[in-house]
Amino acid sequence: MPSLRAIGNSGEHFAVSFLKQLGMVVLDRNYTYNHGEIDIVARDGSELVFVEVKMRRSARFGMPEESVTPSKQALVRRTAEGYVQEKNLDEISCRFDVIAIRMEHGRRKLVYYKNAF
Questions:
Q1: CA of 65: how far to CAs of 4, 44, 61, in Å?
Q2: 34: domain CATH number?
Q3: Is the C or the N end of the chain the one with fewer CB within 10 Å?
């Protein structure tokens, strides 16, 4: 049985492929700052996009997007502020997206939430 980290990596690879198909440029993966992590940082035209990826093998513990709680959103925002400061990107427009991936009949089903929070 694959580890949770392996499942997460699989979901992130799937999400990166999806974002690239949309024409986004992936800048960073698994960026960490002050106890927070952002799964994917991408550029969509002139906008910087911070993407949280959640994957579930079943609905037993709820839908993946339900785990992006207000406290998780706050942590992602603080981490994004660190990214913007570290990279000197103060004048760029940013948004926060969520990609939820769940297994359905042995296949991955992706739901994309643009401007999720």
A1: 17, 22, 11
A2: 3.40.1350.10
A3: N
